[in-house]
Amino acid sequence: MNWLTEYVRPKIRTLFTRSSVPDNLWHQCPACQQMIFHRDLAANLKVCPHCGHHLRASSTERLNWTFDENAYTSIELPKPLADPLRFRDTKRYPDRLKEAREKSHTDDAITVAHGMIEGRKAVVAVMDFDFIGGSMGAAVGDAIVAAARLAVLQQSPLIVFTASGGARMQEGAISLMQMPRTVIATRLVKDAGLPFIVVLTDPTTGGVTASFAMLGDIQIAEPGALIGFAGARVIEQTVREKLPDGFQRAEYLVEHGIIDMVVKRTDMRTTLGRIIGLLIQREELVAA
Q1: What is the mean predicted confidence (pLDDT) over 100-106?
Q2: pLDDT for res 91
Q3: Strand order of the sheet with strand 218-221?
Q4: What residue ranges define each of the domains in the chain, with the CATH number in brackets?
């Protein structure tokens, strides 16, 4: 046995061979540009430990953070026509849907689930900005209606996490029709005497803001979330005035009474549980 070739040489190769390192071990904060180790970021619910910036999250992540011990049941949602207008821009609409599903691992821009939050029943709908910018098409309208009906059936509050760029142009007027549909869905919950709570995340704009997103009994926002209808540049060009600093951000809106509170992501579950308890207790007292 040649100990140089059988033992020494493999040891030297192991010592000097560069090991492959995964590309996703570190993430850069878009606000402060600091690098964050992926485990630290996940442990802090995708909130930058350096500056407190709230990074965007997937619908699955939000459901895991919101429900007790990650225990929840997702519901199967209605499946609308895949391409009602046979729309095509640089790509066919079905091709865009396929790409979005592979990227986000969801069927559309919203997921609905039910479970327990701080020991209380709740139905939660979460929008995912990774799915064609969280745009609202027929599938989103169907999901909000289904979530509202489930909340009424279970006598549970309905909580919606919004994240959207607005209507989905590939569905044209069908997308715009979801605005009144979702408003009616929120009315079903309120007529049943159940709480409707909206959590506005970055960004919430366009037709979603102009419909169900601003109709909650309680309006909560994550820190720094962009919330509005039209973009700031469009508004400046229309009114021909310079907008104030922080315009359309969560902190500006709470100062001007548009929303009720700004809540850190790490405190969101506790806050939602407390609000549900207060609102449910109030309804029980009124009923008595």
Answers
A1: 92
A2: 92
A3: 72-74, 110-117, 120-127, 158-164, 196-204, 218-221, 261-262
A4: 19-55 (no CATH), 56-287 (3.90.226.10)
